[in-house]
Design a protein that fits this description.
Helix 1 packs antiparallel against helix 12, helix 6 packs parallel to helix 9 and helix 10 runs parallel beside helix 17. Strands 1-2 form a two-stranded antiparallel sheet. By secondary structure, it is mainly alpha-helical. A hairpin with a 2-residue loop joins strand 1 and strand 2.
């Protein structure tokens, strides 16, 4: 393969390496906020109905994490290849990779849609839900998964755009669709209502669909963003623009290359998320109030690590292109810069989470018992936030270099040997209830973060990627 004569332009986007990271990260951070707001808006607006509605929405969240984890793994497989081949100056193969990603989305998206429609009925009972919430939980999951093909497209094509250096398009599209989700939630969840304004009474129509309305609004919004991101990925400027007259036949070499990155990530996400499903089942044994508090605490806590997630996407793009260009020192420099940024940001948000956990949970519900329990477990989690920042950002950096197998073994060990073991002992042996469950989560995050820091310092992460194919 012909190596590029100069450093990839993305690596010198800013005046300094830190400036370069910030230029790439801020749109990705806003994008993550907008993506997460779909779930937050659903949770907050459904929370106004009551704890049972909140529990119905949160019950299948671990299953959705499993599905989205597999979709994101496919995004990693194709997008890391795009980053590395851009770094190597081979744009012809980049176009081939993007076309093959479209075929992958079409095949796996339809397969997962069918599977989820089949399991929607028995799933809530299998997760140990109370009979009072199984009907709403089934309906929510069935409606939300009806657009999985487009949700997978959103995951894969936004990853490709970011690794090509375009973090603004996913940001703009997710912002627009989130505003649509808020509007549709207002119309679908609640019945007709009247509101006094300085300009008179504002009357809003409403269907009064409750939990089902929240699912329908999210499905429409996420489906739209998936379609638009696909169009954006195919219509990139310059030599990356895809033309219909190019070959669309499946290419075994691309699928094999993508699988080397995607399969370990998918296995890690699948097995770790299965652990999260077991985790949720543990919480379900503690009752509806505990499940509602856990759901809202997870939603509130996830707000705090969105900045680190945005930085991790910048790390994947920068380290991936540096790796493709054969610039080891640049890859190491950006890995360390982004790691310290992640630690610093989540250290700050951890302080805020500790002192403002109560008001944060109260955004989503008015139930005093749920607020008190949710705020208490968030203070446990706040102590582990800096380690979470290291883990999130370094996961992105190491993926860019192609080191995905370490993440597989680290994720498995921390979920099954640390989180679930500590959670079970603390919750059911020492009878700490939900507080014990969250002790297990904090222990997992801390150990995982330390392992990722050790991996970076070892230097072995850079040499793990398979060799790229020539065009």
């Amino acid at each position: 393969m012909t190596q590029p004569a100069e450093k990839p332009a993305l690596l010198t986007l800013g005046k300094t390496p830190v400036h370069t990271v910030l230029l790439l990260a801020w749109p990705a951070i806003i994008e993550q906020i907008m993506l997460s707001m779909v779930q937050y808006v659903d949770t907050a607006m459904v929370g106004a109905i009551g704890a049972q509605a909140t529990a119905a929405v949160g019950l299948t969240s671990s299953t959705m994490w499993l599905i989205n984890g597999i979709f994101n793994a496919c995004g990693v497989g194709f997008s890391v290849l795009v980053a590395q081949y851009i770094g190597a100056g081979d744009l012809k193969r980049c176009r081939l990779i993007i076309r093959q990603s479209v075929l992958c989305v079409g095949f796996l998206g339809l397969l997962f849609t069918l599977f989820c429609q089949l399991i929607a009925g028995p799933l809530p009972s299998l997760l140990g839900a109370d009979a009072a919430i199984t009907g709403d939980a089934t309906a929510y999951f069935r409606i939300l998964t009806s657009v999985l093909l487009l949700q997978m497209g959103a995951a894969v094509f936004s990853a490709i755009l970011r690794c090509a250096g375009d973090t603004r398009t996913p940001m703009v599209l997710n912002l627009s669709t989130n505003l649509l989700n808020i509007l549709l939630n207002t119309l679908f969840i609640f019945g007709p209502s009247a509101h006094q304004t300085p300009f008179g009474v504002l009357r809003l129509p409403g269907l009064g669909l409750g939990v089902r309305g929240a699912a329908l609004a999210s499905a429409v919004s996420m489906g739209l963003v998936g379609f638009l991101l696909c169009a954006a990925a195919l219509r990139q400027p310059g030599e990356l623009r895809i033309r219909l007259q190019e070959s669309w036949r499946p290419d075994r070499s691309v699928w094999q290359e993508a699988a080397r990155y995607a399969v370990p990530v998918a296995v890690e996400r699948a097995t770790v998320t299965l652990g999260q499903i077991v985790f949720t089942a543990m919480v379900s044994r503690l009752g509806t109030v505990a499940l509602a508090a856990h759901t809202l605490a997870v939603s509130a806590e996830s707000i705090t690590y969105l900045p680190a997630t945005g930085i991790s996407y910048a790390a994947t793009s920068l380290v991936g292109q540096a790796k493709g260009a054969g610039l080891r020192k640049e890859a190491e420099r950006f890995s360390y810069i982004t790691m310290w940024m992640g630690i610093g940001l989540l250290g700050l948000t951890g302080v805020l989470l500790f002192f403002f956990s109560g008001p944060l949970v109260s955004i989503f519900t008015r139930d005093a018992a749920v607020i008190a329990l949710g705020a208490g477990v968030l203070r446990i989690e706040a102590l582990a936030e800096p380690f979470f920042g290291a883990r999130i950002v370094l996961a992105g950096a190491l993926r860019g270099a192609g080191d995905v197998r370490f993440q597989l073994w680290s994720g498995l060990a921390c979920m099954w040997l640390v989180r679930l073991t500590v959670a079970w002992v603390m919750a059911f042996v020492f009878h700490w209830g939900l507080y014990g469950i969250w002790c297990g989560m904090a222990a997992d995050i801390t150990v995982n973060g330390l392992l990722f820091i050790w991996r970076l310092r070892s230097g072995r992460w850079y040499d793990q990627a398979p060799k790229r194919r020539a065009a």
